[in-house]
């Protein structure tokens, strides 16, 4: 089976790497095709465990013109080229862009360089990677399936989602909200399946954490607040900084942020402007092992997600599941799939997005109440360990692939 990825490996997509390794351990032989080369300087341990070879498509067609030309002329005379070209020409007036031509060119290369013996194409993300997969599937006459996540769902036009949902053998996504949205756009809603990513809990063992005692009253022992995620608008880190600036002066805290991202150039000056610079540390991107150590040192995990101006949003951020597995009180917002894990005041604190005052109130409540932090954090850990084990998502995929292979076998003509 070929798995098509937008970029590989990526620090921010641990859930994909975890799934790939889980499928290998379940007996699937994988070949990875990536539309982009890696840009992260670090890797997670799971990337080194994955055995599948990785192949890279031309990221930009003009960078490898000979490779693209060979693929084009290889397919030009084939009957399947007409079907793929019809789909491309139908899409083009609705998306007249260089990006659309790039995806068709990448599909031609993918189909020409298809690994021998591979009989299935699975793709992560339903936006541009699924465009490549759809055209390549038509060229090859091989089925394709899709894993949809968050940004790819909410920033894609409905017409494009509908076409891909209808052409794919099935689509799986990781939040109830995303699944419901996709089902409304599909001609066959039964082909859209919900499966939470979950965690490889062997990498996130239950922590040996002492009872919480910090309450923000001791300037020598401040509350440790942790925020993990790329510095992009949908994470709401500017809202977090504004909320921290509203906390009473008698509360002592420090914030550690882990993650890269273009918005750091905005967030760092904002922290200075708000008078917080001495309490905020910016650590940049870290490996999973390094982040796990940060979880062990934190009292509160804060991620005030929002919906971006372009509709971009998180589904259920994996870092929230990770933090909950480490028995840390999580404070977040009510968007997307976050309430599918957390219930306000039962196993976490949720506020409406874009509300620094509400977030400040939640932070103050959590800081001043160590016993309540412990109670909610224990409940969250129990829910993660009971319902968010990645083995469940791998079992879901095994079932879906097995059913699809069975259907494919039944459609094949019998041999004389």
Keywords:
single chain, 416 residues, alpha/beta, seven-stranded parallel beta sheet, six-stranded parallel beta sheet, 16 helices, 13 strands, elongated
What topology does this entry show?
Elements: E1 2-5, H1 14-25, E2 31-34, H2 45-49, E3 54-56, H3 65-76, H4 79-91, H5 98-112, E4 121-124, H6 128-140, E5 144-148, H7 151-154, H8 158-167, E6 171-173, H9 176-185, E7 192-194, E8 223-228, H10 237-245, E9 253-258, H11 264-273, E10 280-282, H12 288-297, E11 300-303, H13 318-325, E12 329-333, E13 349-351, H14 356-368, H15 370-387, H16 390-411
Parallel strand pairs: 1-2, 1-4, 2-3, 4-5, 5-6, 6-7, 8-9, 8-11, 9-10, 11-12, 12-13
Helix pairs in contact: 1-16, 3-5, 4-6, 5-6, 10-14
Q: Compute the number of strand runs.
A: 13
The number of helical runs is 16
For the report, how would you describe the main beta sheet? 7 strands, parallel
Indicate the structural class. Answer: alpha/beta
- The percentage helix is 40-55%
Poorly predicted residue ranges: none
User: What order do the strands of the largest sheet run in, or round the barrel if closed?
Assistant: 3-2-1-4-5-6-7
Beta fraction of the residues?
5-15%
Order of helices and strands: EHEHEHHHEHEHHEHEEHEHEHEHEEHHH
Shape: elongated
Rg calculated over all Cα atoms: 23 Å
Q: What is the first-to-last residue Cα distance?
A: 27 Å
Average residue-wise pLDDT: 95
Question: Could you walk me through the main structural features you see in this protein, from its secondary elements to its overall organization?
Answer:
This protein is an alpha/beta fold. The chain is built from 16 helices and 13 strands. The chain has helices spanning 14-25, 45-49, 65-76, 79-91, 98-112, 128-140, 151-154, 158-167, 176-185, 237-245, 264-273, 288-297, 318-325, 356-368, 370-387, 390-411; strands at 2-5, 31-34, 54-56, 121-124, 144-148, 171-173, 192-194, 223-228, 253-258, 280-282, 300-303, 329-333, 349-351. The strands form two sheets. It has a seven-stranded parallel beta sheet, with helices on one face. Strands 10-9-8-11-12-13 form a six-stranded parallel beta sheet, sandwiched between helices. Helix 10 (237-245) links the parallel strand 8 (223-228) and strand 9. Helix 10 crosses helix 14 (356-368). The protein is elongated and about 75 Å long. The relative contact order is 0.11. The mean pLDDT is 95.
């Amino acid at each position: 089976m070929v798995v098509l990825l937008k970029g590989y490996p990526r620090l921010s997509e641990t859930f994909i790497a975890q799934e790939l390794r889980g499928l290998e351990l379940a007996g699937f032989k994988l070949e990875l095709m990536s539309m982009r080369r890696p840009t992260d300087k670090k890797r997670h341990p799971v990337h080194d465990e994955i055995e599948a070879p990785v192949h890279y498509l031309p990221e930009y067609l003009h960078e490898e013109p000979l490779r693209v030309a060979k693929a084009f002329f290889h397919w030009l005379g084939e009957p399947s080229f007409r079907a793929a070209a019809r789909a491309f020409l139908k899409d083009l007036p609705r998306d007249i862009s260089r990006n659309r031509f790039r995806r068709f060119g990448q599909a031609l290369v993918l189909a020409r360089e298809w690994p021998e013996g591979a009989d299935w194409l699975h793709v992560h993300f339903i936006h541009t990677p699924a465009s490549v997969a759809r055209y390549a599937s038509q060229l090859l006459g091989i089925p394709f399936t899709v894993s949809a996540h968050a940004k790819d769902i909410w920033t894609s036009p409905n017409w494009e989602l509908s076409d891909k949902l209808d052409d794919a053998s099935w689509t799986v996504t990781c939040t109830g909200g995303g699944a419901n949205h996709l089902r409304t756009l599909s001609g066959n809603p039964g082909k859209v399946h919900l499966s939470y990513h979950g965690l490889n809990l062997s990498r996130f063992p239950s922590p040996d954490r002492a009872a919480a005692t910090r309450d923000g009253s001791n300037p020598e022992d401040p509350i440790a607040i942790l925020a993990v995620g790329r510095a992009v608008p949908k994470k709401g880190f500017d809202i977090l900084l504004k909320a921290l600036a509203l906390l009473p002066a008698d509360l002592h805290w420090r914030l550690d942020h882990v993650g890269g991202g273009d918005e750091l150039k905005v967030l760092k000056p904002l922290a200075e402007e708000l008078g917080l610079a001495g309490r905020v540390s910016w650590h940049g991107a870290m490996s999973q092992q390094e982040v796990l150590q940060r979880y062990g040192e934190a009292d509160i995990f804060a991620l005030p997600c929002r919906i971006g101006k372009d509709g971009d949003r998180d589904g259920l951020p994996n870092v929230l599941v990770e933090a909950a597995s480490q028995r840390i009180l999580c404070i977040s917002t009510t968007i997307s799939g976050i309430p599918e894990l957390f219930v306000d005041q039962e196993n976490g604190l949720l506020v409406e997005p874009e509300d620094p005052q509400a977030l400040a109130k939640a932070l103050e409540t959590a800081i001043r109440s160590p016993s309540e932090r412990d109670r909610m954090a224990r409940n969250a850990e129990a829910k993660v360990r009971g319902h968010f084990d990645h083995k469940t998502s791998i079992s879901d995929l095994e079932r879906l692939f097995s059913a699809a292979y069975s259907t494919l076998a039944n459609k094949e003509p019998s041999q004389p």
